[in-house]
Design a protein that fits this description.
Keywords: Amino-acid transport, ATP-binding, Cell membrane, Membrane, Nucleotide-binding, Transport. Belongs to the ABC transporter superfamily. 36% of the residues lie in helices and 27% in strands. The protein contains 10 helices and 10 strands. It has a 6-stranded mixed beta sheet, sandwiched between helices. A 4-stranded antiparallel beta sheet has the order 2-1-4-5. The model has no long low-confidence stretch (mean pLDDT 92).
Length: 241
């Protein structure tokens, strides 16, 4: 098998006096969708923020495309082709949908300079982005904001897309739309790392899965194998798919 696009080995993270990650080992294969599951407080969001350099790893290594990035600042990490959608989506509420996407399109100063073919593709993935193109992003519903957040992350081609709980609080119809969009993103060759609590979402999309508990990865393997093993689901997650 080829080397993973992203790999964490023995990663520890301290936030102030708190020791949150206790030696995380995680491999994200190139071109696949990897799910990071676990109970609340297991360390999933801290893992994503540590990958992005928003919190600094106190020990261990993080490699992306074979390069060590654990000591890099967040802008340099993003410039390598990694996009991150945080749990709170990070939408600029007073800007229009168009202006939110333009901020992420580094090669364009105006909307007319944005890649029109890529925009058309994004509009097909998320019709609401086109519908509300000139509306203030803060006026949109939660599901529409999530679509804008993901669209902004992919307005330029990315090697790796990292998303924290994309289905949280969304209506079932919006969740299904999001599942379809991520399936198309994966089919386009984008490598994806998702934190997710919706197990239907996880089962539909996941190629690989890693389950966290108390700041470490306690299980890693194919998502299909976890989906078929109810005893393992109960043991790891306290519930079944």
């Amino acid at each position: 098998m080829s080397a993973p696009l992203l790999k964490l080995s023995g990663v520890h993270t301290h936030i102030g006096a708190y020791h949150i990650l206790h030696g995380v080992d995680l491999a994200v294969p190139r071109g696949q969708l990897t799910l990071l599951l676990g109970r609340n407080g297991a360390g999933k969001t801290t893992t994503l923020r540590t990958i992005m350099g928003l919190w600094r790893a106190s020990a261990g290594t993080i490699t992306f495309g074979g390069q060590g990035i654990a000591a890099w600042e967040t802008p340099r990490i993003a410039q390598q082709g990694i996009a991150y959608v945080p749990e709170n989506m990070g939408i600029f509420a007073d800007l229009t949908v168009k202006e939110n996407l333009l901020l992420a399109a580094r090669g364009a100063r105006t909307a007319a300079q944005m890649d029109s073919a890529r925009l058309e593709w994004i509009f097909r993935l998320f019709p609401a982005v086109e519908k509300f193109w000139n509306h203030p992003a803060g006026k949109l519903s939660g599901g529409q904001k999530q679509m804008v957040a993901v669209a902004r992350a992919i307005v330029e081609p990315r090697e790796l897309l990292i998303v924290d709980e994309p289905s949280k609080g969304l209506a079932p119809a919006i969740v299904n739309n999001m599942i379809d969009a991520f399936a198309q993103l994966k089919a386009s060759g984008t490598t994806i790392l998702l934190v997710e609590q919706n197990l239907h979402f996880a089962q539909r999309l996941g190629d690989q899965v890693a389950v966290m508990d108390n700041g470490v990865v306690v299980h890693a393997g194919p998502m299909a194998a976890l989906a078929e093993d109810e005893a393992l689901q109960q043991s790891l997650l306290g519930l079944s798919l």
